[in-house]
Amino acid sequence: MRPIRLELEGFTAFREKQSIDFTGLDLFAISGPTGSGKTSLLDAMTYALFGTIDRVGRQAAQFISQGQPRLSVLLEFAVGDERYRITRSAPAKGQTRILLESWHGAEWAQAGEGADRVRDVDARIEQVVGLAYDAFTRTVLLPQGKFQEFLVGDAKKRREILTDLLGLDLFGRLARRAGDIKREAQLEADTRAQLLEREYAGVTPDALAEAERVAKEAAETDVRAADVESRIRALAGRWAETERSVGDLRAAATDAATMADGAGEAAEALLGIRAELAAAEAAHEHRSRAAAEASRDALHATEALRAARQEWGTAAGLGALLARAESIVEHRAAVGEVEGELRTAAGDVPASEARLAAAEQILATAVVEAETAISTLGDAREAEEAAAHADHVAAVRAGMKPGDDCPVCGAHVSTLPSARGAPRLEKARAARAKAEAAAHDADRRLRHATAARDEADRALAMARAEVERVQRELARERADLTRVESGLAAAFAGVVPLDPAAELRARVERLEVLDEACDAAGAGAREAAELATQAERTVARISTQVVGLRAALEVVPVAAVIRRATALLGAKPSMPRRPAGNDAAVLGAYARELSTALAALGDALLEAADERAAGEAAVLEEAAAIVDGWVEREPTLTDLVSSVSAARTAAARIAATADQRAGDLRTKLANAERIVEEAAEHRARMARFEALARELDARHIIPFLQAEALQLLAAAGSRRLETLSSGRYRLEYVDEEFSVVDTWNGEERRSVRTLSGGETFLASLALALGLSEQVRALAVSDRAQLDALFLDEGFGTLDPESLEVVVDAIEQLGGDGRMVGVITHVQELALRLPSRIEIEKSPRGSRLRVVS
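-> structure tokens emitted (852 positions)
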């Protein structure tokens, strides 16, 4: 498998669609900063091919880029000369979509049935690539953590990978196919043996000789029977003329008897019809009169209904008027109710006006009282200020005498102010407190009066608004009542009664009565007319029967019978004369006479036939002598001819059957000899393929080939490891495990699990390179050629000298026609390789570019 193009979108760091064209890339590096998505390129390949990502298994939704609805990967790759393209995408929640296509020279097309179903494509990919997921990630694409599993991993898993990679299951398939062919050959041999026992038992040369003898005797009997039949038929030919005349007489007698029976039946029918026809005619007359009376009654009922509808209208129209009339009561009640509401609302207005006037008077009084209280409070506060000033003066004056400097202004005091102060201040303060209490009470009464006046004003406005609303509603109700009454006026000649609904219901009931009467009269008229029609049909039917019976009598070939009897007997018989008209009694009498005459003629014809047939006995005796007991004696010559013919046919059939049996035995004897030879051939083939299946038993050859391949891989890897480790280590494969031989420590052999991280990397790389080199030589088919190898990390653990050796080895591997891609952080390694895929990391997502 060799990748050609990789396209991915919404995959980890690659938010936007990115594409890599691997065409022309044989040896290259994949480089970029940590977290840029280098390993994600390998994850995208394994997801596209197998639907699996090493780190999360089949939970691919975990790799959807942050904020993106889904991820998608497209991988175009080549396997030998064939090209494929697989597209796989997964949403955060929901089903995975997949499509496998193949290139057909000019265009891509779906690769067969099921190429758009995940399960079918997963199975198909393993066939196309030649590797399962585990083998792919240990031999072609070596992701982080998987790089060294082939070296130090489970031995059973290692053998399974080799079986898958080298196509060793071919031997198992060959062994199974050899076993299938052996069983098919055994089945064919057993089938032929059973066929010989079932179908060819008794098929021997002696049986064939006996069958040929029986066939010869049957042929001789057939010849004798043919001679007897020829002589009997010649005798029968001589008797045929006489027999024909006898047959004509008997046939004529039969015809006459048949016509006699028919005429007799017609006579009985005609005589029985007379009374039935008379009764039917009487019933028809009675029912016709009754039908006329019922028709008149129906006409009167229809006229009464039409007149009522013309005066009042239809029941449907009256029903519509009734609904309107019934609403008048509601409208009248509504008008009365609204009028009552108007009276109530109008009575509330004067009371509201009186309450408003009283509230305004109280408010006016409260305003005056409040103004007075405020004025008194102002005077009290002024008096309090004057008393306080006097009190201050008294305090300053205390301890002073004329001639002292004022402690407030510093001026020289010649005369002292009055000393009155504290008693007056206390009185002023008490007056001011009393005035404040009075002002507070007055203000409270003013607020209450204002609120009462406002409430009375709102109540009056609401009462007046209610009067206007009820007046509008009353006008609307009166208009509705007038409209309804106007719609009913035309139905009552312009004057609507007090209870129009009762009047309309009475009209509807009357119309229903008239309608029912009309229906009943119509039904009676139809029933009477139907009875009259039935009676008329009965008369017509009976009359038709009479006409039919007359026609039946007319078609009796009396004239032909007379002519035929005259020719056979030599005398003309007598017949009654057919009457005219359709009178049943006359026709019945004629039919009875005709029946009697035809019966007598039939008897005469039979008597003549018996006389002529008496000569058949002599002919039978002559025929019996010819047969001579070969067949049983028959009562008539015709029966004897039939018996001889049947015996002749039986003899011919027996002869043919015996000859056919002899021929079948000859054919079966030849077939049996051929089947015996075929059974022997199939048993020989069965023995050969049974031996081959034992030789190809997968339990022996596949483990042997696996061990041989692992030894060769160890040798190839050892040569690589010696180079990579500067001659220190060699690889060996012993007891299902890889070991290293340390030449620096006296050829010490130890497990590869004891190597350091860098040494383990070198040993794993050496084994991977050796596997890549040897797979074509070791594989039993070219199905799993390793045309590509991808290595992820591990180079950072190498010292400069080891890194140089590794680079040389990788360059040599890339020069062998394989694609080799190396994911690395080591810039020196990336720059050494001919090409590189650089990944640029950014907040919008990583981007790819190829640098040569």
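The radius of gyration is 67 Å.
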